[in-house]
Design brief:
The structure is a single chain. The protein is elongated and about 45 Å long. Helix 2 packs across helix 4. The chain has a two-stranded antiparallel sheet with strand order 1-2. It has a single domain (2-77), classed as Orthogonal Bundle (Arc Repressor Mutant, subunit A), CATH 1.10.10.10. It has four helices and two strands. By secondary structure, it is mainly alpha-helical.
Length: 81
């Protein structure tokens, strides 16, 4: 049981690392800019809060832009910077 828990913890930590989590989000949003934080979280296997942190960082870096309102808008991937 402890080994399974450790595996789950390691998988979670790897998924929320700045590089891998952010890159996976960019990849998913490149295909579908209408995905919500909850939908991204479900596909990646991390919490919606972790996705929101990645989104905030990606926006601050200029790699991602939100077009329109929270409800009804979409994401645009600006590319690598």
């Amino acid at each position: 049981m402890i080994r399974n828990l450790r595996h789950d913890i390691d998988a979670y930590l790897e998924s929320v690392s700045d590089e891998k989590g952010g890159e996976k989000i960019l990849e998913l949003l490149s295909g579908d800019g209408n995905l919500s934080a909850a939908a991204l979280a479900a596909r990646i296997g991390i919490t919606p809060k972790a996705v929101e942190k990645h989104l905030a960082r990606l926006k601050a870096e200029g790699r991602l832009r939100r077009v329109g309102p929270d409800k009804g808008g979409h994401w645009t991937v600006n590319g690598n910077r």
